Amino acid sequence: MQKSMIDEIKVIAAKNGGMGYQTLVKQVLQRFIDCEKRMVWNEYVSRKLKEQQKEADQDKAARAKQKEKKAA
């Protein structure tokens, strides 16, 4: 990490109740991790829901075709 980044983190930490800069870095990393995990999970759930909807639509179309064949 660049020295300038560490210096800025130290200033922010000092202005944030006098906590240590390493504590602040840990908090920032934990926030990032939590956010990324949430984003990945939401994308996964969204993808699965789309897949399920596609399968349901395909099943519905197949049943409609079968019904047409029986009616003919």
Description:
With 72 residues, the chain is mainly alpha-helical. Helices cover 89% and strands 0% of the residues. It has two helices and no strands. α1 (3-15) packs across α2. The chain is rod-shaped, with a radius of gyration of 26 Å.
Say what oligomer this is. single chain
Helix content estimate: over 70%
What integer is the average pLDDT?
93
SSE-based structural type: mainly alpha
The number of strands is 0
Distance N to C terminus: 73 Å
Counted by DSSP, the helix tally is 2
What would you call the shape? rod-shaped
Q: Which regions are unreliable across 5 or more consecutive residues at pLDDT < 50? A: none
The secondary-structure element order is HH
Residues in β-strands, percent: under 5%
**CA-based gyration radius:** 26 Å
Q: Main sheet?
A: none
In short:
The protein has 2 helices and no strands. It is an all-alpha fold and 72 residues long.
Could you give the topology of this structure?
Layout: H1 3-15, H2 21-71
Question: Any descriptors?
Answer:
72 residues; mainly alpha; rod-shaped
